[in-house]
Design a protein that fits this description.
single chain; about 190 residues; alpha+beta; two-stranded antiparallel sheet
Length: about 190
C-alpha cells in the first residue's frame, strides 16, 4: 500500500468519526413502569416502598417462589449499576440465583449460592455476554447513538392491541392465507 492511500484512509476515518461525534444523539425515553409498580417490603422493622420491577428483565436473579417478584429489589439496582458502569466486576457482584423455594433462607451476600462470582461448583449459570451492549463497533453509528420508542406501558391500549395481534398470529400460524381472506377483505376461518 502506498503512503498516499494510507494517509487518505486515515483522513476518511477521522472525518467519519467527527461526523458521527457531531451528529445529534437522541434521548432514550422509558415508559416509567419501573417506578409505577411498587411494593412494601418489611426490612429490619421498617416498611420500605420499593419498585417491584415486575415489568423488567430480572431473569437469573433470586425470586420469591410465591409472588414471582424479586426477593430483593436492590438486586435490580446492582444490575443497572453494572450496565451503567460497564465494569465486569459490577456484573459479577449482581446477585444471581434460583427462585426461592419453601424453607430457603433469605439471600445472604456471603452465601456462595447467591453470588455469581462465588458460585463455582454451584448449579448456577450466569448471564451470557451481559456487557454486549457496552461494546464499540467500528461500522455504522454507535449503538447508544440510536434509540427506539419506549415499550408500551403495562395496561395501555397499545400493549393490549399488540398482545391481541400476537395471539391472533399464534392462532392462525398454521392456517393457509387462502382460508383466511375471502371476498372483500372479510375474514373467515374454516379451520376452527
Amino acid at each position: 500500500m502506498n503512503s498516499f492511500r494510507r494517509e487518505r484512509a486515515r483522513q476518511i476515518r477521522y472525518t467519519a468519526a467527527d461526523l458521527a461525534f457531531n451528529r445529534p444523539h437522541p434521548r432514550h425515553v422509558a415508559n416509567d413502569d419501573e417506578q409505577k409498580f411498587r411494593r412494601v417490603i418489611e426490612e429490619k422493622g421498617e416498611n420500605n416502598n420499593k419498585p417491584s420491577y415486575l415489568t423488567s428483565f430480572t431473569k437469573g436473579m433470586p425470586h420469591d417462589y410465591k409472588t414471582g417478584l424479586l426477593l430483593n429489589p436492590d438486586d435490580f439496582e446492582w444490575f443497572i449499576r453494572a450496565i451503567d458502569s460497564g465494569d465486569v466486576r459490577d456484573f459479577i457482584d449482581t446477585p444471581l440465583g434460583p427462585p426461592q423455594e419453601d424453607g430457603d433462607e433469605e439471600p445472604d451476600p456471603e452465601n456462595p449460592k447467591w453470588k455469581s462470582h462465588k458460585a463455582k461448583g454451584a448449579k448456577l449459570r450466569a448471564w451470557e455476554s451481559q456487557g454486549a451492549g457496552l461494546a464499540f463497533d467500528l461500522e455504522g453509528p454507535d449503538c447508544w447513538a440510536v434509540t427506539m420508542p419506549p415499550a408500551p406501558a403495562l395496561g395501555s391500549d397499545e400493549l393490549i392491541a399488540e398482545m391481541a395481534e400476537v395471539y391472533a398470529q399464534a392462532l392462525l400460524r398454521d392456517v393457509p392465507f387462502t382460508d383466511i381472506v375471502k371476498g372483500h377483505g372479510e375474514i373467515e376461518c374454516q379451520t376452527f
